[in-house]
Design a protein that fits this description.
By secondary structure, this protein is α+β, with helices and mostly antiparallel strands. It has one domain. It contains three helices and 15 strands.
Length: 265
């Protein structure tokens, strides 16, 4: 008599846990509001220029920046940031459940969103500004090379101080952060350098380079889905259901120079 073997039991797999200390941990995300930011935003940033000083009260006014006053509003610098959309997806047979397909697409988005946003911010690959490579019309970063990873971190700290003059953000890969374990410290769900600069440890960032930027802000929409009708998701050429979950994101920072320091891993 043949042995009857029961089919494998369907169980729940291990949950997906987001990486700690990623880009979102270093950004002040703003409320979505009416969503007008999704067409891009502009703002008038504070100047990136250093201040000056005078030696005594008898110096010529011509030696003081801004005196005599010559106001030209056409020269006002404007910050600019554009939005982009990232999405997760899931495909199953037409016999599957629409709700299950949509749930899996949303889980796909949630698991991979932050790394994709990090990679997009770095590369400008979705036509977005600002970005770290100086593409899409955005200014190129100030670049330097360091002998090792610790000197690269120090050079970025110094670069932020010189070009931005305020507390910025340092961006590095998870591999780089592992090499700098004695130079970083976690606090309250965020990562900082030993002198207090916030650090974004990105799963979407490349190895061998550390980036410094001004402080950042962002907007992030709610998840929106493909459709609420199962028939809309059906590909009749192969009888598959494909669900999509999308989110629109905007990341901005003042148009002070981005600092880019490479090193040999």
């Amino acid at each position: 008599m043949p042995t009857l073997v029961a089919p494998a039991a369907l169980v729940v797999g291990a949950p997906r846990i987001p990486f700690p200390f990623g880009l979102y941990s270093a950004i002040n995300m703003r409320p979505e509001g009416d969503g007008r930011w999704q067409t891009g935003v502009t703002w008038e940033p504070d100047t990136c220029e250093p201040i000056a000083g005078i030696g005594d009260a008898w110096c010529s006014p011509d030696a003081i920046t801004g005196i005599p006053k010559d106001l030209d509003m056409n020269g006002v610098e404007v910050g600019r940031a554009t939005a982009f959309t990232v999405y997760g997806h899931y495909t199953c047979s037409a016999m599957g459940s629409w709700n299950e397909a949509q749930d899996r697409a949303t889980r796909h988005l949630n698991a991979r969103e932050e790394a994709t946003v990090e990679a997009t911010l770095w590369s400008g690959g979705l036509g977005n500004v600002p970005n770290f490579l100086g593409v899409n019309g955005y200014p190129a970063p100030v670049t330097a090379a360091a002998a090792d990873v610790e000197h690269a971190l120090a050079d970025v700290e110094a670069g932020i101080a010189q070009t931005y003059g305020s507390l910025g953000v340092i961006h590095m890969s998870r591999e780089t952060a592992s090499l700098l374990k004695n130079r970083l410290t976690p606090r309250g769900g965020r990562m900082f350098t030993l002198i207090g600069t916030p650090v974004a440890i990105g799963a979407g960032y490349p190895q061998g380079v550390i980036i410094g930027t001004p402080a950042m802000f962002g907007y992030r929409s709610e998840v929106f889905t493909s459709s609420n009708r199962q028939g809309d998701l059906l590909d009749r050429t192969n009888n598959d259901l494909t669900a999509v979950a999308e989110r629109t994101v905007l990341i901005g920072f003042d148009p002070c120079p981005v600092i880019k320091v490479t090193f040999t891993p």
